[in-house]
Amino acid sequence: MRGHVSSCHKDDYCKLMSPTASTASESADTEEAASQAKEGTLEAILPQITTSQRKELHRRITLWLVRRKRLLTLPENDTEFRDIFDFIFAGGYVPPTYKLVMQQMLELSSEGKENVHSAMDLLEREGILPSLAGDIWSEGGISIFGVLTYWIDAEFTLFERLSSAIPFSAVRHTASEIQSATKKACSDLHIGLYREDLALGDGVDTGDESVHCTISDNASNIISGWDCFDGYECCNHTLALIVKAFLEHPDIQGVFKKLRGMTTHFNHSVIGGNKLLNDCQKRHNMNVTKPPQDNDTRTGWGGACKQATWYMRYQVVIQMYGIENPVNASTAVPNPDGGSVYKDHRLDLLEWYIVKESAYFLTYVMNASNILQGTKYPTASLILPVLGKVAHYAEATTPLKFENAPVKITNESVIHGRKLLLTDFISRYFNGLQDCKLEDWCIATVLDPRYKHFTFHCVGRWMRGKLTAELALEWTRKCWEADWKPKGDESSMPALVPAQNKSKGQDGRPIVTAAAFLADSDDEEDATAHIQAGVVMEKEDELQAYLRIPRVAADVDLLAWWKVQSGKLPHLAKMARQFLAPPASTSFLCCGAHAWRPAKVHWGKHNRALAYGGNEYLDM
């Protein structure tokens, strides 16, 4: 705030900081000098604070406290914080007390709730169902059951809103409790109706009919609790379980244990990490960094991938560290992984090959995970193409690249680990996935003009080899004709044969984008190439017209494309809004929960106030 006054009100700020400035002219009389001094005060800079302005300041301070995860008592108890406002407003404004902050939070929560109500009512009038994603976060005796709602509005904007943050610390995390809490939250948001007196014969329960699908992790309690909804498990969580098969190979597991030991040494040893390692990095003209800590949970693996990549890049530095500093390198703080000093965790040449080749392979899986974790763009239609590409990369015969340079996997342990991962992938996805879960993914993919022809990798391996583009199209047509196709004359229209899409992908895009990740799929031939330009059938419905549109470039903005086409394909566009809205992952819920750790004790008592603020107001 001081910076704002000094930059936007420079003259007044100078007067304020130099009280003698207003009397610099020796010819000024006493009255004029007093007037100039008064003009230099902050009362002259800022108008008198009105009631509405005071309330808005309270609101903005509350938002700042929540977004920055500060204690809610800070404005009341922090003297320096209050002094800033006293200085700026010359005593004309006092920051809110804890009680007022809580009141503002509840008001923001109520506003967010009303906004979600309006959105859900509008979706209901349009005949579109929202989707839900949920997870339970527990730490330090505090548990929160978070449920997020997803939908795409008429302007083809994807929305993600926290619909409920339910205190779950005093509740058993059973399937029945999860189901009851979910349906109560949905009913409160106008997503179906729910009352608990069903046993009395006069209850109401339409929640499962008012949700398109749900996405959860692989925990048995939430899967059972949500079995009344259509839905599927988080793709990232399932990928994490699949990657465990790779990381639990005995040789690979031992190497990554050593990486954790060396990481502990470099991050905790003042001499080793802050001086000797940094000196080695500088001598080799490399960036001065430390290896990333592995903060993975039981099913997490991203930290292991980042560690392997870091050590691969700094292999020469780490090897020279032990050679140039034999005494200091062998003395350090105890490590939690069995060894007591750095020398117990040094890698031999064969182990360095395991680190390097593991980083090559895991980077592909990490890129796929990052794509599916996105929440700012539709991911439902990317599940089949991206997971198919992961299976393709897991094949021993598939050549790999790292940073656009060809690499080879020659270490027997990594080759075997790669096979173990593929075997688990096939068991969980290709052979073990229920048809009803695969059906939603197929319909979403058909409604994505980039991948609707199913020419990406491994299509024929799903459903034990029974999935085909024709079957996916059959599922889509049944759904279209049953729920979305209008009746009567408006169901048919002149055929649309638009011009070929000329957009091309941008060169040099990072590999983590879906367009780059899927760039070398088996999709060189466009399935619509045989259609002659200018041929017009007598009548065709919107789905037929859509399927005749040539495939668009992989980097086309999907929502923007549908917004343009919605004028020609209005009913199919509504169907797309429902099927493209669900996320592929719930990993963002875990990330959001961990972000609250600095204030978890304080927030634990008051998380009910967060129930409807969501990322619209509280920026979670």
TrEMBL record:
PANTHER family assigned to the protein according to its UniProt record, in alphabetical order: ZINC FINGER BED DOMAIN-CONTAINING PROTEIN 39, ZINC FINGER BED DOMAIN-CONTAINING PROTEIN 4
Subcellular compartments: Nucleus
Domain HAT C-terminal dimerisation, residue spans: 542-586
Name this protein carries in UniProt: HAT C-terminal dimerisation domain-containing protein
Domain of life: Eukaryota
Molecular-function GO term, any one: protein dimerization activity
The entry's keywords: Metal-binding, Nucleus, Zinc, Zinc-finger
Database matches in Pfam families: Dimer_Tnp_hAT
A Gene Ontology cellular-component term: nucleus
